[in-house]
Amino acid sequence: MTYSVAVSGASGYAGGEILRLLADHPDIEIRTVTAHSNAGDPLVAHQPHLRSLRHLELQPTTPEVLSGHDVVFLALPHGQSGQYTDALGDAGLVIDAGADHRLTSREDWDAFYGGDFHEPWTYGVPELIVGDAKQRDALRGATRIAAPGCNASTVSLSMAPGVAAGVIDAGDIVTVLAVGPSGAGKSLKSHLLGSEILGTANPYAVGGTHRHIPEIRQALRAAGAADPRISFTPVIVPMARGILATTSAPIAAGATDAEIRGAWEAAYGEETFVQLLPQGQMPRTADVLGANTALMGLAIDRAANRVVVVTAVDNLTKGTAGAAIQSMNLALGLPEGRALTVNGVAP
Ligand SMILES: NC(=O)c1ccc[n+]([C@@H]2O[C@H](COP(=O)([O-])OP(=O)(O)OC[C@H]3O[C@@H](n4cnc5c(N)ncnc54)[C@H](OP(=O)(O)O)[C@@H]3O)[C@@H](O)[C@H]2O)c1
User: Fold this and answer.
1) Which of 4, 15, 74, 286 is the 20 to 30 Å CA partner of 95?
2) What is the set of domains in the chain, with CATH numbers?
3) What gap in Å lies between CA 220 and CA 157, rounded to an integer?
4) pLDDT digits (tens, 9 = 90+) for 151-194
């Protein structure tokens, strides 16, 4: 069976990456692409790298244009998806790359986003530990999926094994992330001009205000933490794509080195797209460019009494579009890794 697909936000970064991956998916026909201010333009006017899709024109994003497809991807600014999702009752599967359906708590939504609260959908991070299982069990057969925040899934995947195994104290997690500016989207923002970010590292949302904090806390509660606390500091660095998250937490009393490393090995040893590097090795963002891979290094700092996990992710691939398509594959009963690669682009 071939599934017809519509991708909204197709002129943006997340929509463009969804299309790049779907273009090589053998079970998918990309039928419709939509945008907002750029509707009416050829898709390749905004995504010139998508040569196999040069026949497509950007349509306006309306419920009428999006309806009638087997699968609809929404890659819109947060707060915009709800108006369409409510009208897409006939679509078998809708996947939202935005935040509108990620949070289960209305209080968290009001505190970090504001505006209308929409019902939570199945969270699109298959490898996340949830109780005694993984999130992929919930994704099989799902009809409404909320793809993750890129920083959020990177940090949640980094810490969930330690939380679930009880070898870290989730009450004192500290994470500092080097992030590329594509994480903030393609629309013009003066603080993301080349002249503002080249040759400098710029922290933002310091001090507990970043919108991905409640999403991480929600994921770590699902992994077994009673009251996870996270100090979260992103720093924009001059690389177009990529996240390097350095996350640490205190070692739980009595946990041995073997138990600590064993927790991450047990969680990810069988996974394709989340890989723990051998002891002593650390990942680079360059290793995961264009790959659906979260690559992790783990160190045990006994002097500081902390476990340190460094994780590299391509924010647009494993951080967004790859997670969305991996989740789509599970929802449709297709092989989970179809159209996704673990291999990055180098140098
Ligand atoms: N960038 C990432 O790394 C990343 C990671 C995880 C999740 N996400 C999420 O993915 C979503 C899209 O992010 P992005 O980075 O792709 O942003 P972007 O590059 O700014 O693209 C936004 C897209 O939405 C369209 N759009 C803007 N306002 C709209 C409206 N009112 N109605 C319909 N369409 C509208 C734009 O169309 P025009 O160009 O025609 O105006 C464009 O196609 C966001 O919710 C973001 O949080 C992004």
Assistant:
1) 286
2) 3-148+318-332 (3.40.50.720), 151-315 (3.30.360.10)
3) 9
4) 999 999 999 999 999 999 999 999 999 999 999 999 999 999 99
